[in-house]
């Protein structure tokens, strides 16, 4: 399954912003995989924090191979050492096990998140151990397919904005102006900004390359894995 959008969303963004519209024309339709299973998506995103896309894919495939189905029941049947043996840190293993046990016991109603608005869903998800705002926003986009996610915490999104609009710096106030411009289709804009940040537009450079990211921020310096 891929993130679903079409002509209505792209035409709106073209009308709202000529530069982004030109990118949409050049890049065409973007297919980004989504995981409609909310439990699986949370685990997948925790696995992917602060590691490369390749490392995330490797650990995820090991977990799926071991469990068959990544569910609260199957994950909770493991212990931290078993998860660590698949290539994740002990801390991540603890986060994932705590999440699985809370879902299995009913302490956390994972399906209730689907019925929440964006801010309520982010608040609920960030109450989980190991889930910050950026991770919650990516879950909203790549699992719940919410249409208006533009993450200030995502360094690649900010790089894409600097590249497209030729900014040396991009503070929160300026970022929010772009968020309002793209709304209610910020998620579609995000797909194209990630493409820009990854070099989809030949010759387009970053006029204000940021200082090297800290370890905590490296997970946001690249577009999230499908």
**Binned strand content:** under 5%
Total strand segments: 0
Number of helices: 12
The helix content is 40-55%
Rg of Cα set: 18 Å
* Strand/helix succession: HHHHHHHHHHHH
Structural class based on helices, strands and sheet pairing: mainly alpha
Would you tell me the overall average pLDDT? 93
Low-pLDDT stretches are 211-216
Assembly of the depicted chains: single chain
Main β-sheet, in a few words? none
First-residue to last-residue Cα separation: 10 Å
**Silhouette:** elongated
Summarize the topology.
Layout: H1 7-16, H2 18-27, H3 38-47, H4 53-67, H5 72-76, H6 80-84, H7 90-105, H8 118-126, H9 133-142, H10 155-165, H11 172-182, H12 186-197
Helix pairs in contact: 1-2, 2-12, 3-7, 3-9, 8-9, 10-12
Keywords for this structure?
elongated; 226 residues; 12 helices; mainly alpha
Structure description:
The structure is a single chain. By secondary structure, the chain is mainly α. 55% of the residues lie in helices and 0% in strands. It has helices at 7-16, 18-27, 38-47, 53-67, 72-76, 80-84, 90-105, 118-126, 133-142, 155-165, 172-182, 186-197. Helix 3 (38-47) packs across helix 9 and helix 8 (118-126) crosses helix 9.
């Amino acid at each position: 399954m891929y993130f679903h959008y079409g002509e209505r969303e792209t035409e709106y963004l073209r009308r709202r912003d000529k530069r982004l519209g030109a990118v949409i024309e050049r890049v065409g339709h973007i297919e980004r995989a989504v995981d409609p299973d909310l439990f699986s998506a949370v685990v997948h995103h925790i696995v992917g924090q602060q590691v490369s896309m390749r490392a995330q894919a490797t650990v995820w495939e090991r977990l799926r191979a071991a469990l068959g189905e990544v569910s609260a029941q199957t994950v909770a049947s493991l212990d931290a050492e078993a998860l660590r043996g698949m290539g994740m840190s002990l801390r991540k293993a603890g986060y994932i096990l705590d999440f699985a046990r809370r879902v299995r016991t009913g302490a956390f109603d994972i399906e209730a998140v689907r019925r929440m608005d964006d801010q309520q869903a982010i608040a609920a998800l960030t109450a989980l151990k190991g889930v910050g705002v950026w991770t919650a926003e990516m879950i909203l986009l790549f699992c719940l397919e919410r249409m208006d996610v533009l993450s200030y915490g995502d360094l690649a999104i900010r790089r894409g904005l600097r590249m497209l609009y030729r900014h040396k710096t991009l503070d929160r106030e300026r970022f929010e102006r772009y968020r309002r411009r793209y709304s209610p289709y910020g998620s579609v804009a995000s797909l194209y900004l990630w493409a820009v940040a990854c070099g989809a537009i030949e010759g387009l450079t970053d006029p204000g390359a940021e200082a090297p990211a800290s370890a905590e921020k490296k997970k946001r310096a690249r577009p999230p894995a499908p």
